[in-house]
Design goal:
470 residues, alpha/beta, Rossmann fold, ten-stranded mixed β-sheet, 16 helices, binds adenosine-5'-diphosphate-glucose
Length: 470
């Protein structure tokens, strides 16, 4: 029965707040909304449900007060320089991130990083417990905050708690390396609903709970000894598809697309890669595959160029600095060997761009190359499809990106197989108009149907049901 004191309030707890600290024209500090699918998906729900967003603003400022930004209530959590080093760069990005991504890089284990992870998770929890109204819904996001569900349930058993993992949940064999594996599983079990990108992640989780914690499970439900039930299920995330399409249709974007192609020397085929600079994204293997196609004469350097955009990311973590140097060297070598004056084979841009520029790049690309070794979803693949309202363009996509579950009509590749990637790049490049448009049409139907609003609604409806069935 519905309790009259239940609140409709929705509290989001995520590592980052959806705003960045900026300097206003008068020199005073202010905030700028950081564009992103999650914020735009949550915005309408947050407005109707008296929403509050708890997160870290990204710096080390202290004594930040809760504030309103364009109708959104934001509650900042302060991190010290030591928290950033141990909780964020350490435990989150040098331990959990590689373990959850197939150990593509070697994870580091440090007990003081774990202590900091527990401590910061507790601070997020305490703030959520203060802010949430009686019976509110709290939606916790991602691998940085896996202990929050359990900590919050202990403080506030009246709340309905959901958790969503944006990255893959690893197979039991890899997860078992984590010295704090049981604490993490128990942390997640504090939620009523634990959401994953793919059914495989949910199944890994349920299996681990059975093996390592010893709870009874049946299909997607975990039965706790106190009678509580936890559901683990897949909710593949998406993008604001219509907003991307609308952007891609703008006159200014169409003009910018033509400008980009002409600045590249009007090649016949433009290949594009867009990633955060991360070792999971497979940037090196893909550039190598492309350069070999030119070296062995399958592609002509006068006809084909590769544009690789890599957003700076986690630059204080050692593995990321090494990767950046490695990419710099590889691009230098390829262009030294294959480029001509004013005509490099690879255009490498190490920076972040506004969404209009991204849309223009997607429009300008004949072949979009998305080849991560492991990726929860990969929104770039979906953004590319959303921008191709002309039903043209080819997507080469790794089997190991979550997006490959839905975008079956892409040219699917194993990113570890360089020859296989070369063959797929060539096929995508040589496909006739009919084949390209047939594949693109089918993928567009998929991303139009499952957009980010459908994703958020699906998760929240499922949370409401889990609550009711108890
Ligand atoms: P990411 O690892 O960051 O996300 P992805 O899903 O591709 O990977 O999202 C990247 C976002 O950054 C895209 O929206 C893209 O447009 C933007 N971006 C990339 N390069 C950019 C640039 N140079 N300038 C501006 N914007 C740029 C994590 C998981 C993914 C999962 C998402 C969402 O690792 O697997 O899909 O969360 O759940």
């Amino acid at each position: 029965m519905e309790d009259v004191t239940q609140s409709d309030q929705l509290v989001i707890v995520a590592n980052r707040l959806p705003v960045d600290r900026v300097e206003l024209p008068d020199g005073s500090p202010g905030w700028r909304r950081s564009p992103g699918g999650l914020v735009s998906a949550m915005d309408p729900v947050m407005r109707t449900r008296n929403g509050v967003w708890i997160g870290w603003p990204g710096g080390t400022e202290t004594d930040l007060e809760p504030f309103e930004d364009d109708g959104l209530s934001l509650v900042p959590i302060s991190l010290t320089a030591q928290d950033v080093e141990e909780f964020y760069e350490g435990m989150s990005n040098a331990t959990l991130w590689p373990i959850y991504h197939d150990v593509v890089a070697k994870p580091e284990f440090h007990r003081e990083w774990w202590d900091s992870y527990v401590d910061v998770n507790r601070r997020f929890t305490e703030r959520a417990a203060e802010v949430a109204e009686q019976g509110a819904t709290v939606w916790v996001h991602d691998y940085q905050l896996q202990l929050v569900p359990q900590m919050l349930r202990e403080l506030r058993p009246d709340l309905r708690i959901g958790f969503y993992l944006h990255i893959p949940f690893p197979p039991a064999e890899l997860f078992a390396q984590l010295p704090w594996r049981r604490q993490v599983l128990e942390g997640l079990l504090g939620a009523d609903l634990v959401g994953f990108q793919l059914p495989g992640g949910a199944a890994n989780f349920v299996r681990l709970v059975r093996q390592r914690v010893g709870h009874k499970t049946h299909r997607d439900i975990v039965y706790l000894p106190d009678g509580r039930k936890v559901r683990a299920a897949a909710f593949p995330i998406s993008i604001d598809t219509r907003a991307f399409e609308e952007l891609a249709r703008r006159e200014s974007v169409v003009e910018r697309c033509a400008e980009i192609r002409s600045a590249l020397g009007s090649p016949t085929k433009v290949f594009l890669g867009v990633d955060r600079l991360d070792y999971t994204k497979g940037i090196i293997a893909r550039l190598r595959a492309f350069s070999e196609l030119i070296t062995d004469g399958s592609l002509d350097a006068d006809e084909a160029v590769f544009v690789q955009v890599a957003t700076p990311s986690r630059e204080r973590v050692a593995q990321y600095r090494l990767l950046r140097d490695e990419i710099d060297r590889l691009v230098g070598r390829i262009n030294g060997d294959l480029g001509r004056i004013g005509q490099p084979a690879i255009h490498y841009l190490h920076s972040s761009y506004p969404r209009e520029e991204m849309a223009a790049l997607y429009r300008a690309a004949d072949i979009m190359v998305v080849t991560p070794f492991r990726d929860g979803m990969n929104l770039v693949a979906k953004e590319y499809v959303a921008c191709r309202y002309d039903d043209d363009g080819a997507l080469v996509l790794s089997e190991f990106a979550g997006a490959s579950n839905e975008l079956r009509q892409a040219w699917l590749v194993n990113p570890y197989d360089i020859n296989g990637m070369k063959a797929a790049l060539l096929e995508a490049c040589r496909a006739d108009d009919k084949a390209r448009s047939r594949r693109m049409k089918a993928m567009r139907r998929t991303v139009l149907r499952n957009d980010v609003a459908a994703w958020a609604d699906g998760f929240l409806e499922s949370m409401a049901e889990v609550g009711r069935s108890e």
